[in-house]
Design a protein that fits this description.
Blueprint (H helix, E strand, L loop, with lengths): L1 H9 L9 H16 L7 H7 L4 H12 L3 H19 L4 H7 L5 H12 L3 H4 L20 E3 L4 E3 L2
Antiparallel strand pairs: 1-2
Amino acid sequence: MVELTRHLADRAPGPAALPRRSARLAAEAKARIDAAPEAVPSALTLAHDLGTNETTLRRAFKTAHGVRLFDYVLDRRLQMGRDLVRDTALPIGEIAWRCGYGDPANFTHAYRRRFGCATCFAGGQALDFAQYSPLFSTGGSSAVGHPKRLICLK
């Protein structure tokens, strides 16, 4: 009994301590999200597709990857959106739809909250407002000045 207690005390918590089934669920969920983040309608649907319940999947994912399942899906969708904004000339509505958002306003709000700039200025095609009004000034930086906010050109 003492040996068992000592052995369990030496085990470090984390992914290695996960039961095999939970580790497999977390890895498979991550692989599906990485392959097509826009195709994950909900944690419940993903859990059913993997043959488990939502609570078990959420717990296994958080333990294995250190991030909540919802946050990971959101991050992957926004990264996909950022790539599309930077690399294509698609309208924001199309980009939002391709990233799994039903409403472009939800996408642009999440994008601005995550990356700190508007989607319309993220592609490096920002207007030079200084030529239109003395209220705007770029100040030689990589941002467009606005009387009420600063818009980045990431």
